[in-house]
Amino acid sequence: MSKWIQFPQTVQERSLIKEEFQRKYNLPGVIGCIDCTHIAIVKPAEEEHAFYNRKGYHSLNVQMVCDHNLKIMNINAKFGGATHDSHIWSSSLVEPYMRHLHESGEHVWLLRDSGYPQRPWLMTPILNAPHGSREELYTTRHVQARTCIELLKTRWGCLLRDRVLHYHPNVASKITLACCVLHNISLHAHLPAPSDIPVTTVDDNDDSSTQTTQSTTTENRNELIRGRAMLNYLISRL
């Protein structure tokens, strides 16, 4: 894990990723895409309620961050399927790191779906953007950039919804981590992705249809306002 899954720690590393996102998707300032996916597991004997997700089966809710090349830079596989994406994000080490970069004056951000709160360092799509507008252009490019988890599941079929992991949640978590490491090794070795890509829908990987639970504190309201201002700044650069 420490060798093959690393979040960019230097300005130079982040600059290289920004340049590639700009080149491939015409989105400035992006250093990664963050998403969650449900990895199906058998009904656990303990704390079963923590793993029963809103889609009606038991799972791990796994958060991943990938770069422009679909390389996984961070993974969190310790939460059950009942946990909302936004809670996993707020509990991760990446959230305070991105906050620190922003407060230090480095304007970089991650892309995420609308299941997460808008923040200056976390860009979400604009739902129902007017046709032909810059907001629609931004959202189209935003969606195109977020494909990491789909590719991961095509490489390792045991992570697909129909391939339930018959293991204790802790073991299932380790299997998921191993698949992520092997995924990055495959990219490093330039191995081609499988051609039989399964059809996925928004509901396969997305909690955006569930209302995000947010605190109403003044700090969170201010972060939301600053996040929307940063989003408008990003859109103005397209």
Automatic annotation (TrEMBL):
Chief localization: nucleus
Cofactor(s) named in the record: a divalent metal cation
Membrane-crossing segments per the record: none
Residue ranges occupied by any DDE Tnp4 domain in the UniProt entry: 34-184
Pfam families: DDE_Tnp_4
Cell compartment(s), UniProt: Nucleus
Alphabetical keyword list: Hydrolase, Metal-binding, Nuclease, Nucleus
Location of the region described as Disordered in the Swiss-Prot/TrEMBL record: 198-220
GO cellular component: nucleus
GO MF annotations, alphabetized: hydrolase activity; metal ion binding; nuclease activity
InterPro entries in the record: HARBI1-like, HARBI1_dom
Low complexity biased stretches: 208-218
UniProt family annotation: Belongs to the HARBI1 family.
UniProt xrefs under PANTHER family: DDE TNP4 DOMAIN-CONTAINING PROTEIN-RELATED, PTHR22930
The protein, known as: DDE Tnp4 domain-containing protein
